[in-house]
Design brief:
385 residues; alpha/beta; Aspartate Aminotransferase, domain 2; globular; binds pyridoxal-5'-phosphate
Length: 385
């Protein structure tokens, strides 16, 4: 196989070997919480498609809905009934999604939210906090982004009330939107979230929550639900776990802002493809029926060292209950729960309470850990399936 046919090794940058584990580099299939590599080796997966899968790979209910949508023709010349039905179901469960539009990727959906904010405010500048995808509007330093576009964007630091307030106030007359990932490694403080709400209102700017990692994980409605932000963000963006791995993203929020979609142009040929819409509907039902977010929270809390629910260190829990391989057993479900990003501290060598997710070094064989690692079938983690 030629690796150079796909520049950078893979089309999903965060799956390139140096971003994750090094080896194995490619997989052939996945089921539940397990993944098989090219040589047939089996792994317990805590990455779960970079957070795009929360119910487990190939969840039966989701597959059943997707299969029915395939049998129904996948896509057609008219908008599908499933689009309106899913919009209704989401609005019922997440009331601040008064109107929604569907797209295929998170990056597109956040870009759509930004466009809608610019339409609503007739302003251009954006403050962003976190990662919002690869598109031009938020790529401060990337080559190939026009300087004019780059200059319209600036970073807002996570959880820094004073700096955030100052940045918003300084740009107030030109500021269209503040786009934030509400959880970046650690949880946000109430003061920071409240500052964002108050200051954007004061500045006449739109508050956009990029809930691509947090919705269908912290809570079905993401951080806005978990931290009960009132009033809710003006616009929110959902993606990743929303359709349990089928490609779908949502931009939604206040009706007056979303209705501006009629005045600008936001559209994609396959945004209304029926398989992902059906998968999302089924995913939502499973999340509600099975209390999935509560389960993720429970498991994540047990894996996080130093938490009251976890008197033992994370590596002991992992050895005893989850471990099958070496790097394969790094507890990223904790990361799923807290939506954290890799840190540089290694949980196998240090069990510091500030640890959130394993660093790449933990993904490689660690001699001390390998010796201690025994896998017990009876001790398998409870699956959601
Ligand atoms: C918070 C957040 N926003 C936006 C994106 C971009 O989504 P996508 O990769 O589906 O375009 C990601 C992807 O990791 C994300 O985590």
């Amino acid at each position: 196989m030629n690796d150079w046919r796909v520049p950078g090794f893979t089309s999903t940058g965060s799956k390139r070997p140096d971003a994750l584990f090094g080896t194995p580099a490619r997989m052939t299939r996945a089921a539940g919480c397990r993944v098989w590599d090219e040589s047939g080796r089996e792994y317990v997966d805590f990455v779960m498609a970079l957070g795009a899968v929360a119910l487990g790979y190939g969840h039966a209910d989701v597959n059943r809905a997707a299969t029915a949508a395939i049998a129904a023709g996948v896509v057609g010349p008219l908008p599908p009934v499933a689009e309106a039905e899913l919009a209704e179901a989401l609005a019922e469960r997440i009331p601040w999604l008064e109107r929604v539009r569907f797209l295929k990727t998170g990056a597109e959906a956040v870009a759509a939210a930004v466009r809608l904010a610019r339409v609503a405010t007739a302003r251009e500048e954006i403050l962003g906090c976190g990662y919002h995808g690869w598109l031009d509007w938020c790529q401060g330093a990337a080559e190939g982004v026009p300087a004019g576009v780059r200059n319209l964007f600036a970073e807002l630091p996570f959880n820094d009330v004073a700096a955030g307030r100052e940045l918003i106030r300084a740009r107030a007359p030109r500021l269209a939107a503040v786009v934030v990932e509400p959880v970046v490694v650690s949880e946000p403080t109430r003061e920071w979230l409240q500052m964002l709400r108050v200051e954007t209102e004061r500045a006449g700017a739109i508050l956009i929550f990029d809930e691509i990692k947090t919705a269908f994980r912290l809570a079905i409605g993401g951080a806005a639900e978990r931290y009960t932000l009132k009033p809710a963000p003006d616009l929110v963006v959902l993606g990743k776990a929303l359709a349990n791995g089928f490609p779908l993203a949502v931009v939604g929020g206040r009706a007056d802002l979303m209705n501006a979609a009629n005045r600008t142009w936001i559209s994609s040929t396959l945004a209304t493809e029926g398989v992902a819409l059906a998968a999302a509907r089924a995913t939502l039902e499973v999340f509600e029926r099975d209390g999935v977010c509560e389960h993720i929270h429970r498991i994540g809390t047990r894996l996080l060292p130093g938490s009251p629910a976890s008197p033992r260190c994370v590596s002991c829990i992992t050895r005893r209950r989850i471990c099958r391989g070496v790097w394969r057993c790094a507890p990223l479900s904790a990361a799923s729960c807290s939506s954290a990003r890799p840190t540089t501290s290694c949980p196998w060598r240090t069990t510091r309470a500030r640890w959130t997710v394993p660093s790449p070094c933990c993904m490689r064989p660690c001699a001390r850990f390998r010796r201690a690692c025994t896998y017990s079938r009876a001790g398998r983690p409870r699956s959601l399936r």
